[in-house]
Design brief:
525 residues, mainly alpha, Growth Hormone, Chain: A, 26 helices
Length: 525
């Protein structure tokens, strides 16, 4: 097989497997548009609203405990086929949920698929990719995640616009009345395609080698690297496995042996850092964040689309440079950007003013349902120094249910803020994340750990990453209402400062080395 054909096959298979990232991204972020309408329909508290968003991450955390070991036992390919099935079930069930409990169950089912889609594709791609292009190919999974995020933002916006269009088509399907159900249902289509496409990819050659299926492993490797290179690479794999017997039940204590201390520390810190700087608060609550600036629902959804496109563009930039510049420079550059933009965002909200003057009240009086929240007129002329004080007073005057329903309209009328500063800060934050922590974390995960422990180790650090993500998503609505926007974003910025120091002092460069070479360098017996 020619080198050109081998490279083409490699890219096609990597892209196919990485479609799991698309489903993960879509499933995780589609809730950003749906949650406002779910909140109104099911009359959720802050805790319930946070859990409706974060419950998917909760079960993905649980799934990560098992995704790596399960893929070690039954194979990477079969694990992903099961994951695709879970995505489909979750999409259909979510769209048909009659109440909050059913919605939570449906999203938690999807979380099981997300756990597998986060862990297994980068592992699989790293195991088929040559060293010189491994970073770029593993990044395909992150690229698909951000395409999924962008697609969810875009389809949410389109469904919102269709519902408001008043067309016969929209009226017949009751899109406006069921907009969040249509948002969640769309995921079923890519889930079906992923399920079918997975039957066209081979099993991971390193997994086959660990199972003693030598002939099949060499055959798969020859498909991607040519017969001569496949034979050499296979010998290196066998040498790295040495006399170790690959057990289907590797004990967790294997990860905590002294030889693993260095790589496990890096894995754990990067897993925490990727989420604790607030990326999923931005992605999963993007329209809600923009509504805090007072620009209104339609503009908030439109800005969310811009965020998705920014994420996509800069992820492509990262893929182009990760094997040229290396992992460490991208991490350092991205974290510096996160620090600057989070502090800008905190400053923007800190300087905001909240006041319902006569012009604002007159604007609210034009609202078709003003009679329901007319008691807000009691706040006319009072200036509030931050969003927490203002929202507390609105909820006190109107009561929880009415305030929750019209919070966005009232906030839009009251706030005076530099909305451009907020938009630029969030775009800069997403761009900084997309060229660094987004793709580089998964590349490092796929490179740091030895072959026989890779599934277990990636599951372990993936669980930590997902647990932090769950925590961020769960408490974000509470933070906005109790700490305020400015304080919340300042905290994220400080975490990024600590992360930058760690990256500069501790992270090694892994580009251009085979997985076996990295094991010799980083894992010291």
């Amino acid at each position: 097989m020619s080198k050109t054909n081998s490279s083409f096959n490699l890219i096609i298979v990597a892209l196919t497997v990485a479609l799991g990232g698309f489903l993960m991204g879509f499933d995780a972020s589609v809730i950003s548009g749906a949650i406002k309408f779910i909140n109104i329909e099911f009359e959720l508290t802050d805790v319930q609203k946070g859990f409706a968003v974060a419950c998917l991450t909760l079960t993905s955390t649980i799934a990560m405990l098992f995704a790596g070991p399960v893929s070690d036992k039954i194979g990477r390919k079969k694990t992903l086929i099961y994951a695709a099935s879970l995505f489909f079930i979750s999409a259909v069930y979510s769209a048909l949920s009659p109440n909050y409990i059913h919605l939570i169950i449906a999203r938690m089912i999807g979380g099981l698929g997300v756990g597998a889609a986060l862990i297994v594709p980068p592992m699989y791609i790293a195991e088929i990719a040559p060293p010189k292009s491994r970073g770029r190919l593993v990044s395909f999974n992150q690229l698909n995640i951000v395409i999924g995020l962008s697609a969810a933002f875009f389809t949410n916006y389109m469904i919102l616009q269709m519902g408001d269009s008043g067309s016969d088509f929209a009226m017949n399907l009751n899109i406006q009345g069921n907009n969040w159900r249509y948002m969640l249902a769309l995921e079923a289509l890519p889930a079906i395609l992923y399920f079918l496409f997975l039957f066209t990819v081979p099993e991971s050659p390193r997994w086959l080698a660990m199972r003693g299926l030598d002939d099949q492993a060499v055959k798969v490797m020859a498909r991607f690297e040519g017969e001569e290179n496949a034979s050499k690479e296979y010998e290196a794999i066998k040498k790295s496995l040495k006399s170790d017997t690959v057990s289907t039940k590797l004990p967790l204590k294997e990860l905590f042996k002294p030889a693993m201390k260095f790589v496990l520390t890096i894995g754990v810190v990067i897993a925490i850092l990727q989420q604790i700087t607030g990326i999923n608060a931005v992605f999963f609550y993007a329209p809600m964040i923009f509504e805090q600036t007072g620009i209104g629902t339609d503009a908030s959804f439109a800005n969310a689309v811009i965020i998705g496109l920014t994420n996509l563009v800069f992820t492509i930039v990262a893929i182009a440079f990760v094997d040229r510049l290396g992992r460490k420079p991208l991490l350092a550059f991205g974290l510096a950007g996160i620090i600057i933009t989070m502090f800008m965002l905190a400053s923007g909200f800190r300087s905001a003013e909240y006041k319902l003057d006569s012009a604002a009240i007159a604007k609210l009086e034009l609202h078709e349902n003003y009679a329901e929240f007319s008691a807000v007129k009691q706040l006319e002329g009072t200036t509030f120094k931050n969003d927490v004080e203002f929202k507390d007073k609105v909820f006190e005057v109107l009561g929880d249910n009415v305030a929750r329903k019209y919070e966005s309209d009232i906030l839009t009328a009251a706030i005076t803020i530099n909305s451009w500063l907020v938009l630029i800060s969030i775009i800069g934050f997403v761009a900084s994340f997309a060229v660094s922590l987004g793709p580089v974390m998964w590349i490092l995960f796929s490179e740091l750990f030895p072959d026989r422990l890779r599934g277990l180790a990636i599951s372990f650090v993936g669980v930590i990453n997902s647990a932090i993500s769950f925590s961020v998503q769960q408490i974000f609505p509470w933070e906005l209402n109790n700490i305020g926007s400015s304080g919340t974003y300042f905290i994220y910025g400080m975490f990024a400062v600590a992360g930058l120091v760690f990256v500069l002092l501790k992270i090694p460069e892994t580009k251009g080395k085979s997985l076996e070479e990295l094991e010799e360098l980083l894992v010291k017996e």
